[in-house]
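Each field is set out as follows.
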Amino acid sequence: MSKPCPRLLLSALRGGAGKTTLTLGLLAAWRDQGRRVVPFKKGPDYIDPAWHCLAAGCPSHNLDPFLMEGDQILASVARHAVQADALVIEGNRGLYDGLDAQGTSSTAELAKFLATPVVLVVDCTMRTRTTAALVLGCQHFDPQVAIRGVILNQIARPRHEAVIRQAIETYCGIPVLGAIPRLKCEVFPERHMGLVPPQEHTTALRAVTTARDLARRYLDLDGLWEVASQAPPLPEVPMTPPSFCADGAPPVIGVIRDSAFQFYYPENLEALRQAGAAVMELSALDDPVLPAHLDALYIGGGFPETHARALAENLSFRNSVKAAAQSGLPIYAECGGLMYLGEHIQVGSDKFPMVGIFPYDFVMGKKPQGHGYTILEVTRDNPYFAKGTVLKGHEFHYSRIAPDPAPEVPMAFRVSRGSGMAGQREGLLFQNVLATYTHLHALGCPQWAEALVRRAREYHGDPDLDENASHPECETPERVRL
């Protein structure tokens, strides 16, 4: 067995019950006590982990039983636990909510798999003793889930708290580890059923400080630490060293990472490095052009629609991306990156020009056009995945493609789960460009990073690059002519 690993999972009866605010407060409060706490988020999510990172002072990582195998989850937790004093996992949705009636891939199943104590955050609005009945139901629903405490949220007044606290401790036999009053201020504004990313929050540090102060005042920090310390040691997991060919200079993969494109799993960038690439961060908002020495480009998701005007105004950068794609630069784009590579992003009646690699507009709607897990089968030759490969990912977008791509337009994937973009087809192709609404996680799809780095190496050493550079769009003497 490995060393002791205190850990705690915060869950709730539903989404929107206050888990994230309390997770941030707990992370920041324990950090102030001198503890190194590594955060995790259950499920596919970019925004909550970004806030976790701000509160904990270290990256947050995703754990997802749908996207990843059990050994991949355990290896990730064990690897990050080595340098940690404790781990805090934020669940998603309700404790037992999953893909089906059996709760497949639920927070509860993750808690059991990792033998992690659970603390329930319960919204007590207009309830007293019934709160204990709900908690008791969760305890009996699956006794293997180690529910070890409760945090009360939205408490109206001291008597309200006293009645609920007594009922839970009497009938459920577990402690109340905090009681948060009903607050009038909105500390963390929301967008699209989630928090506004900290990169766009003008007072992000102040918001985390507010959450920390709430935790200090209203949470039993010592009691929560005691619960976390009840977790058994994690099993020993063999650590496989990364393997890659180190001959020659590493290929350089650009990653557009700014307030418009923020959605990158840490493991995805780490996987590129482990596969032998050097990663260079870029900004589509501020950089004048792509660097000339790039060997590939990765454009993740984000909120390009909220930055559409600024993206459109950076004409030189847009033109350099288009010219590089036409010169054969390997480009992989997800969701917001896909939108950026189209002709326009349309927000209301306003249309903003984008890169124009693909002859489609992306029109923002008021409701999600795709939301949830995806399963894709690779059906066409493409730069990154072998035909017949099955990929598991997720999508969440308010945009739709316009016009609908014609049946003869080549696409890389057939969609067996998810919305797709053209009658259950997905994955726009252009030379070495593949753009999709689906997000992949490198732990569940290790071939993705290997393929992108392999393409970058091929581009890096392509003897025909000078011929590629003779396109009319190319004007500078560099190898990748922009």
